[in-house]
Amino acid sequence: MEHPDAHDRNGTHAADRVSGPSDRESDDEATQRYLDLIRSVHDEWTTLEAEGDSSVQLSATALSTIKEAVRADFRHGAHVEMPPTAAGPYTLSEQALRTVVRNAVDSVPGVIALRTTFDHEPPKGGHRTRGVPSRIRCRISAAAGDRDLLEVADEVRTAVIAACREHMDLTDLRVDIHIEDLHDN
Amino acid sequence: MTTETSAADLVEVVCAVPGVRGIEAGIASSLRTLDARLRRDRASRVRYGIVIDPRSGTVTAEVGLAPGAPVRTIVEEIQRAVQRALDRSTVGPVGPQPADTASERREERPWQVLVRVQSLSGA
Predict the structure, then answer these.
(1) Second-level CATH architecture of B7-120
(2) Is there a contact between B113 and B83 (Cβ–Cβ < 8 Å)?
């Protein structure tokens, strides 16, 4: 099942991404390591249980935590590097970053945020980390009426740029606005 | 007198920062927590959403924030609160030496506090 925000998460549609032989090889190796790990855990727990060691008896809450952590990770998406604060580094999940942008879009009267996607600089971090955002594309629905749509787009762009500067100190951003739909007030 | 600051202590420190809705653990820290608990291996340094790593001198805090104040302001307050708590602690970054040895003593090297903002929601 494709995640509804697959476009947002990847910047491109998931189906558009083509994995090369080296990617598949790497995936195969990772899968094998994971299978070996699970096998090892099974063996270890079997031994411990046979010895009456209660430490392997996970509570229902602990088991639930694992399930929920997996679901949460799916919601959060990858982590996006941000310019560090004076006290250290930090990241925002794609979900949190999208929330900042969508709140800015929705703050403009008569405008509803639809889909938001990001381009990123190359990441400095590791696995599942995206670099600092360099471009934001906002698809919106605007209220049908007397307002000039160019003005609406400029207002949305200004709101997004201001929010990104205020919340994350992102200053070198390109923001594209696409009015995808018109709705009645 | 100082004592070693545990991950459980840092949970309280982080949650006391205005604008923090709570600790929002990712899958990696959740699994590390269970791993440490099962191994009974320094479980005090890992809690869901908080990982203290003396080897790298890094503390990772995974949080959910409430909307309102600028994100980076809340993040910086979290970082400074954690650093203050660790400054009062006997545990410190240990560089390349193996952990859990006598060499694990505090050095004049500041902790790096990595904050991972998982979500922005709620009132």
Answers:
(1) 2-Layer Sandwich (3.30)
(2) yes
Q: How far apart are CA A173 and CA A161, in angstroms?
A: 7
Give the pLDDT band of residue A12 (cuts 50, 70, 90): very low
Q: Are B57 and B109 in contact (CB under 8 A)?
A: yes
Number of domains composing chain A: 2
Closest CA to B48 of B7, B13, B85, B77: B7
- Contact residues, chain A to chain B, C-beta under 8 Å: 55-56, 58, 62, 65-66, 69-70, 72-73, 75-76, 79, 82, 85-93, 95-96, 99-100, 103, 166-169
Tell me the sheet residues that pair with A85.
Answer: A88
Which CATH number characterizes residue A125's domain?
3.30.70.1350
Is pLDDT above 80 for B117?
Answer: yes
A105 conformational bin, left if phi > 0, alpha if psi -120 to 50, beta if neither: alpha
Residue A91: which pLDDT band, with cuts at 50, 70 and 90?
very high
Instruction: Note whether A105 and A148 are same-domain residues.
Output: yes
Residue B109, chain A, CB below 8 Å: the answer is no
Dihedral sign for Cα B73, B78, B79, B84, please.
positive
B55-88 per-position pLDDT tens digit: 899 999 999 999 889 999 999 999 999 999 998 8
Task: Name the β-bridge partners of B114.
Answer: B60
- The residue in chain A having the minimum alpha-carbon distance to the alpha carbon of residue B33 is A62
The answer to whether A78 and A129 are in contact (CB under 8 A) is yes
The answer to whether position A87 is within a domain reads yes
- Predicted confidence at residue A112, as pLDDT, reads 95
| CB-count exposure of residue A164 (10 Å: 0-12, 13-18, 19+) | buried
Q: What is the pTM of this model?
A: 0.77
